[in-house]
Design goal:
9 helices, globular, alpha/beta, 37% helix, seven-stranded mixed beta sheet, single chain
């Protein structure tokens, strides 16, 4: 099993310096956004920021007080590509069979989660947890979700994923869907269902921590107070939309609030409509912080 304290021992030095795009106005918020497998920050970040979501607004100008941090994944050998070295947050097998070779995921997810957690801590020190947003595309979405589920700090403002999936989804959902039956025939535990469900969700996250070799401390479950947006192209040929739907189902079982949108005619990418919905969702779910940012722009 991996070290019990990967926050200190992970090889985060293997991650290149992130691309940091400074805010258009005074720095009040920070977005941390992870690219997809095989990409990098400079290829992924600027086009995303420059995408128009209306006649007068780009994605970046919708958040004029936001600093955007685009990390780049470390170089790792991809088993499915004959062990070619590519930028990837973690290794994984074919998404046509996402529950095969799950052992390939653990090392990268452990190290990437530790790295993302370090970025979160730095951002929180600057602007406060209530002003930090974490998201990603494709494998970056998967890595962001795992980082959020294993985050034991304060709840951040929001999270989002585009055309992604949730590693270890089947195992975690299986734990949540199969709580121990302590009711008995006499109804002694009648009305205790919420406590059983909470325990099952905590057990699912504890399983995830153990599977990744993360800290053995009790999970804080702070992700439950982080609203999520998940968008997916119906015609996605790389990450089937069924995996996105399954991820949302599992996240809801774990106790999160998730806004789900599917986009007809869209493949494995984002669109101006998806980003527009993301902006609207952040306006509605961040307690006025980012809503005020947009209103003041």
């Amino acid at each position: 099993m991996a070290s019990a304290n990967p926050e200190k021992t992970s090889r985060t030095s293997s991650y290149p310096d992130p691309l940091i795009v400074e805010p258009l106005q005074a720095h009040k918020h920070t977005f941390i956004i992870l690219h997809g497998r095989g990409s990098n920050a400079t290829t992924f970040g600027p086009p995303l920021l420059n995408t128009r979501i209306s006649e007068t607004q780009t994605f970046q100008s919708s958040f004029p007080h936001a600093q955007f941090i685009f990390p780049t994944a470390s170089k790792r050998r991809a088993q499915i590509y004959n062990r070619s070295v590519i930028n990837q947050w973690f290794d994984n097998w074919s998404l046509e069979t996402p529950n095969e070779r799950t052992d390939l995921q653990a090392e990268g997810l452990r190290e990437t989660s530790a790295y993302v957690h370090s970025l979160l801590r730095s951002a929180i020190d600057q602007v406060g947890a209530e002003n930090v947003v974490l998201g990603g595309l494709s494998q970056g979405c998967a890595a962001a979700l795992i980082s959020l589920l294993t985050w034991n700090g304060e709840p951040i403002a929001a999270g989002f994923g585009m055309c992604g999936w949730l590693p270890f989804r089947m195992q975690m959902e299986g734990i949540v869907d199969s709580p121990e039956d302590g009711g008995g025939d006499d109804g002694l535990f009648e009305g205790a269902g919420d406590a059983v469900e909470k325990d099952a969700s905590s057990q699912a996250i504890a399983f995830l921590q153990e599977e990744l070799g993360l800290s053995a401390e009790d999970p804080s479950m702070s992700f439950r107070r982080v609203p999520l947006f998940m968008g997916h192209g119906v015609q996605d040929g790389k990450v089937p939309i069924s995996l996105g739907r399954e991820a949302v189902s599992c996240l809801k079982h774990l106790g999160t609030s998730v806004e789900w949108q599917a986009y007809e005619g869209l493949g494995h990418w984002y669109s101006d409509l998806m980003l527009s919905h993301l902006v609207d969702t952040l306006k509605e779910t961040t307690g006025g912080n980012i809503r005020k940012d947009i209103a003041d722009s």
